[in-house]
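Re: weekly structure request thread

Next one in the queue (170 aa):
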Amino acid sequence: MDGSPRHMTTLGGHVIAQESRIIPELYAGPALRTLISGLAGETVIDVPDTVERHVLNILHREGDTHGAHTDDYPYALVLFLEAPDHPAGGGLLEYAPKARSLKAIDDASNAPARTAHHRAGDAYLLRSDTTAHRVTPLTRPGLRRAVLNFAYTTHSTHPHTTPSARELYS
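Done, posted below.
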């Protein structure tokens, strides 16, 4: 998206579904769905695209990053499997809610982007189709950031699909 860098290892939902029984069951579980719907304030449903339902993103080399983007579907539940223990290690989430463009992350005149550090075991729910977001580069060798991302949509959402997901996860 807009040439923003993507340096990471990925695994798409179609492969995860072939290799794991647990991850698709967790994704579709009624307890998780009820929790996410409650947090979102609306009923969430599976995304129709099996490639994007659940993906694994791994930053494992110095400089690895997941550049600025918005997602095709409205909700992303991001579960941290591994993460740098200290913010100085990089792998931070930078985000700008209700962004009109990806440049909103860098536009300090409007509202500065927010930054969040996460540790292994953390999770967050993001309104990912209207929030410009990116992950800062890892700052040194030996650090890893591995996340499992569950994407959800709603009955009333019309996704604005982009080719980037297919390029990353197929």
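The chain has a mean pLDDT of 90. The helical segments are 13-19, 22-28, 30-40, 50-53, 164-169.
Next request, please.
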